[in-house]
User: Which sequence fits this backbone?
């Protein structure tokens, strides 16, 4: 069994904070402690963990990805979203975080972000909990 | 216990689709559902999940990695494969994917790739399944 | 339950080999075989697996990250460590490795590194073991 988190992304490139949605599932689960595995079943969006207090951090991550992987037309993939595929492999499609007593064990400043690189779209994140 | 997938990579830089090899192990396992952990025990090749339908996607990922991390001679590591080590840390050495009823839960366009950055070589990917 | 590894990082940017600290915990655990999940609860340092034999490899990874994500002042985050946040998302905040018979299953040249991007600081790595 796995859970599905649904996210509507607002524009082509956007990081959406899904921490509360993950936390809700962990809070209600019958498993007290363990690992929470997150998986993104898309090839043009990823997942990352970073600061969710000051939004300028996410802004800088995005600007840097845009600088390193511009959305130009020199790619061989002709659907216009090659940059989104490349960023996905740089950022990652999955994450593993810990929970104890039905609460996520994140650092003070950490949040979990779905990284949309080719939106706006309806996106899904799969979630499995394993006792440990 | 862990499984070992063996891959012969064809040239210095090549992404090899290992999805079917992973799927075969998952199909035959006694575990119905859970997470499939993949681990690459090499320091000059990695693993990523991305589109395996149009090969131009992988081509663009590779070209971008080559642009960002060229195989020049300005590195301090003198074995001529510093670029391969660097790309490995950018791409990652492990992956965690889900399976249900002995089938991988991948997105429509997703495949699993061994990313060879210093081939051609004989490479191994370790695999463990955990019920969940 | 989870373990905590503590690391004092020596300067602003430094990769610290934590392989032995991870190995010690795995050696003493009651679980014989499984996966070892590592999690970094910070947003300006990450974790990676790469060669720990010739230190020039880590030197080249660091130089390349500094070239791709310079510590300039053109970022919107005004705390002077935007580069550290960006590198953390490129490198990753967690790792999953295997162990068998209370020993880590690493490749010959592989070590596990805490990647400090905004030190010197006291850092923590959380660790959970799951039988498999």
Assistant:
């Amino acid at each position: 069994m796995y859970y599905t988190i649904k996210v509507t992304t607002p524009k082509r490139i956007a990081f959406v904070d899904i921490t509360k949605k993950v936390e809700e599932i962990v809070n209600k689960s019958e498993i007290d402690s363990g690992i929470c595995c997150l998986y993104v079943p898309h090839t043009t969006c990823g997942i990352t963990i970073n600061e969710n207090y000051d939004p300028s951090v996410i802004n800088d991550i995005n600007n840097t990805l845009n600088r390193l992987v511009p959305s130009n037309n020199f790619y061989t993939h002709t659907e216009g979203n090659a940059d989104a595929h490349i960023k996905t492999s740089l950022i990652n499609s999955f994450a593993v975080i810990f929970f104890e007593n039905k609460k996520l064990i994140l650092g003070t400043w950490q949040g979990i972000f779905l990284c949309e690189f080719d939106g706006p779209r309806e996106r899904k994140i799969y979630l499995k909990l394993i006792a440990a």
